[in-house]
Amino acid sequence: MSENVRQFTVGADDDGVRLDRWFKRHLPQVGFATVSRWARTGQIRVDGKRADVADRLAKGQVVRVPPGGDAPERKARARKPLTEAQIALAESMVITQDPAAIVLNKPPGLATQGGSGTYEHVDGLLDAFAPDGPRPRLVHRLDKDTSGVLLIARTPGSAAYFSRHFSGRSARKIYWALIVGVPSIEDGLIDLPLGKQPGSGGEKMMVDQSEHGQTARTRYRVLDRAGNRCAWVELQPLTGRTHQLRVHMAAIGHPIVGDGKYGGPDAFLSGSISRKMHLHARRLIIDHPDGSPLDVVAELPEHFAASMAQLGFDEELGAELPDPPKLDPRTAAKQAAKAHSKQLRKENRGERRSRGKSDAPKGPGKPPAKKRGPTKGKGSPVPAAKRPPAKRPPGKPKPR
Fold it and tell me: Degrees (nearest 5) of the Cα angle 126, 117, 301?
């Protein structure tokens, strides 16, 4: 059966990826258990040498894969064909595209992903960009009623690359919004932790000053104002919490125009100003896998542009790139460490699945060693469930 042995050369997109993840990308029909068995028995070879599932591949290496291993139940599902209207919609959103990325200008009212009762969404249109090759994938999201720049990764490698930059906060996202009223401080930082609002099923967020609230920071700058009625602001989220910009602006008493969810009736202006939400992801600056900066601007949707014109706002006032927000060294170090830990957890998921095998008997008929807990009296083990809880000094907070 040697004629059925397969050989693959590792491409640049897979440089540094774990062997088990390489299989998931290129041979998804081969299950993890099969890949582990092949590696354990030496049937998988990398440049002629035995390899472990946790080994990382390098560009140009040759992976030898034995025949077989296909699991019919794991074969990729057939893609649902798109209609001509869906393909036209997908193509109409494109701002720019290259072998690594597709950048879209998402219209308001179109969800980024599917959910309960949501059948039309950006994720469902991505087959339009690769009907036969690897399916493009989302690397970040926008609310359904938020318009603007949405980055799509063309390949698994570029998806991992862009995801690291988003989680590490090195990507710069600049939003435009119309808000009700005018803040007394025209260039400020909102630092209010957020959490899910009880009773909303996780669909609504709120300011949460308790120990459970997640850090959320937004920089805002007033670009222009229409008297005391309305202001045009530039927003830079320094963290990526759900509905962060919307909750923060409402929390300081200046909800985004059209955002009834967080601003209530006060979020709507009288007259002919549209009742749609006026929040737009205007610009995205992020490093590209080829080493060059990717800097993309999305045009305003029709209702937002009409409101800008009616209120007398000139888009040129927001053309200048704002200074990058400055973080104190301690905060920057904490964010970098957190992003690094998150990435390691993602990369080691496959490794964790195989840890249980280390407790298997090492010889024929030899049972694994029993784990013994603390003893009480003359060697009788105390079950873990019955151990008294460790006492903490008064005033010391409970570890989380």
Answer: 55
Cα radius of gyration rounded to whole Å, the chain: 26
* pLDDT per position as a tens digit, 351-363: 555 455 444 444 4
Which strand (E) or helix (H) includes residue 162?
helix 156-167
Phi and psi, residue 387, nearest 5°: -65, 140
d(CA 320, CA 316): 8
Whole-angstrom distance, CA of residue 153 vs CA of residue 135: 9
Contact 279, 244 (CB under 8 A): no
Rounded-to-integer distance, Cα 87 and Cα 142, Å = 21
Alpha-carbon gap, residue 88 to 40, rounded angstroms? 49
The total of other beta-carbon atoms located within 10 Å of residue 252's CB is 17
Closest among 16, 54, 13, 49 to 32, alpha carbons compared: 54
Residue 267 main-chain phi, psi, to 5 deg: -85, 0
- Whether the full predicted model's pTM is greater than 0.90, yes or no, is no
Alpha-carbon distance of 259 to 145, in angstroms, equals 9
Residues β-bridged to residue 163: none
**Cα–Cα dist 225/232, whole Å:** 6
Count other C-beta atoms under 10 Å from residue 31's C-beta.
Answer: 17
* 262: enclosing H helix or E strand: helix 260-263
- The predicted-structure confidence for 119-161, as pLDDT tens digits, reads as follows 899 999 999 998 777 789 999 999 999 999 999 999 888 888 8
- Catalytic residue ranges: 143
